[in-house]
Amino acid sequence: MFGGAAHRFYAALVTDADSRPLTAAEWRQQYTNELQLELDLSADQVADLQEILVENGQRWCDFWAVAGPELDDVRQEGSDRIKSILSAEQQQKYQVILDERERRREEKKRAACP
């Protein structure tokens, strides 16, 4: 039931690594504009598309609320295993990388599921 459009929703499209993620509303507008241009959608189709995107977006937020903690556990286990093969100096640098990735992940989550 989760289509490609919803998956793209959670990619939280950005123009580059330093840009802020698009909000859910901004993403829906951008995606609607893209499909309207590429598919020559009618006004009724645009309205239906927007409703679908809102509903699917909520379903993704609900999904991530349930699955997120388990995914965090998997991510943490992997990070811990990687740290175990690193020297103390490498571990410090790796922690900086992890902290930045977590910051970006939280930004995307807040933008997608306020």
Succession of helices and strands: HHHH
Mean pLDDT figure: 86
Largest sheet: none
Tally of distinct domains: 1
* Secondary-structure content class: mainly alpha
Portion of residues in helices? Answer: over 70%
Written account of the structure:
By secondary structure, the chain is mainly α. It has one domain. It is 80% helix and 0% strand. The protein contains four helices and no strands. The chain has helices at residues 4-11, 24-39, 43-84, 88-112. Helix 2 packs across helix 3 (43-84). The longest helix has 42 residues, at 43-84. The two termini are 22 Å apart. Residues 12-17 have low confidence and may be disordered.
Write the layout of secondary structure elements.
Blueprint: H1 4-11, H2 24-39, H3 43-84, H4 88-112
Compact description:
With 114 residues, the chain is an all-alpha fold. It has helices at residues 4-11, 24-39, 43-84, 88-112.
Index terms:
single chain; elongated; 4 helices; 114 residues; mainly alpha
